[in-house]
Write a structure and sequence with these properties.
Layout lengths: L2 E6 L3 H12 L4 E7 L2 H7 L7 E4 L8 H8 L7 E6 L4 H10 L3 E4 L4 H12 L7 H9 L9 H4 L3 H11 L4 H8 L3 H15 L4 H7 L3
Parallel strand pairs: 1-2, 1-3, 3-4, 4-5
Length: 207
Amino acid sequence: MKINLAIVEDNADLLRNLQLILSYYDELHIAAVFTNAEDCMAAFDTLAVDVVIMDINLPGKSGIYAVETLKPLHEKVQFLMCTIYEDEEHIFQALCAGASGYILKNTAPEKFLQAIKDIHLGGSPMSPEIARKVVQSFQKPKVDKPEYTNLSAREKEILDYLSKGFRYKEIAAELFISIETVRTHIRNIYEKLQVNSRTEALNKIRD
């Protein structure tokens, strides 16, 4: 059985090359292509796809926004980010939004194919550079840091989940609280640590 793909990529040359490369593999079928997130989201209910290859930097809404919107509605669809971005902020935003894999656009064709197969089978393929940063993020916060001791017990608990890459929805489920309560706690964490993002918060309390 073939793996049905949708591709979201706004660069015409990259999209053409990607379609050409993937068309060589009998295991794959490109069911749809889009050049922006809005068109993809509008048409998604009519598609029958297994894996979506999603760029991040798109005109209008970002690929991360598209994944965050679509994943809760289509839990069985796997989203594979394919991007030039390898900074921690983009990585964790994408993974928290619901992406299951994250590879760079310079990935070799055979590794690209393997990533698609892996994510379809329930894996979380990542380029080596990305995997290293994800592993590093699992460092536990240092409890003796002054910034960390200023947090409440609940805030420390949520920050620990953030350090493990949990999404807001997953944190809410683990702690039996609402997503809005999670967001409130995270806003308070950012305010106490004087940061503006997950990455900044985790960096602040690490060595």
